[in-house]
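Q&A log
Question type: sequence-to-structure
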Amino acid sequence: MIPSFGRQWSGFILTGYVLIALMAVAPGQVADLIAQNAPLHVDVKLVNVFVSVTDQKGAPVGGLTRDDFSIAEDDRAQRIAIFERESDMPLNVTLAIDTSSSVAKDLPDEQRAARGFVQAVLRPQDQISLMGFATTVEELTRFTKRPDEIARGIARLQGGGGTAFYDAIVLGSERLGRQKGRKVLVVVSDGDDTVKGSNYDQALEAALRNEIMIYSLIDVPIEASAGRDLRGEHALITLAEETGGKSFYLDAEGLKNSLMKVSEDLRTQYFLAYYPHNQKAGTNFHHIQVTVPKAPSYNIRYRTGYYTDSLDSPQPGAEWDPNVFPAQRPSAPTTGSPR
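Response status: OK
Response body:
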């Protein structure tokens, strides 16, 4: 059975496709197509943008309308086709917990907090999965709506070993990318990648290609700056910023408080969508800009852009199997990564 929102969402997209198709076909041809019961095909992608708005004190800003927002692609103004407040779109969450030796001391607290987060965030239309990562990445629980299944996965988390941090981002993004609705990757780690596998650029590209919002919960094992992996912390922060998520440092209350902040943030988002108009040619990555013109002091978070090509069709000379992980893929373009 399709949820009511799913039916409405499909209707929105279908209506947009049909209107655009009709605009591109002469009236006489439309009549012929209808008489022949022929399908209408158009190549238009609805670009989804989830937006979080906070004031100067960091408090969520509610009550904004479609007219309050302005959206552009590559500095070219776009028309907002769909707008919603506090979207009821299904939420898909992957909770990825670092269990490596550098943060193993916090594992018991993380297990307790993770159980509370699952209870707080899951609604009937939502689902969650669990990953643990150390030297390797393990999917402990596949996507489920049942908190008891996640609880069993949490109990299986074990500490020790290296840190396949970027592999976890890539794998989590690819698994989430298959889901419908909002896709959120919550990562608990110090960002210290010690395994030779994926790198920062590949992790960011995987997240953007799959429309993933990353929420980074930064676990600092050593407070003294001389013993901290500041590059890893910076990677966690920038991954969140680039994908429209948010980063939090674990405080004295541990993971529980940070996870509740993530839950609150997800409940106060705006959903904007547009059909690209006057799209810039000659690039496979398009930058998105969202503003609230009447309130320039607001802090606005959203994904920075999207890709129009697909890695499912490798370029000549670039061979890799997307079903094998870690994926053997071509190197991503350098973005000035922190690693």
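Response note: The helical segments are 4-24, 27-35, 107-121, 147-155, 165-176, 200-209, 230-243, 255-266.
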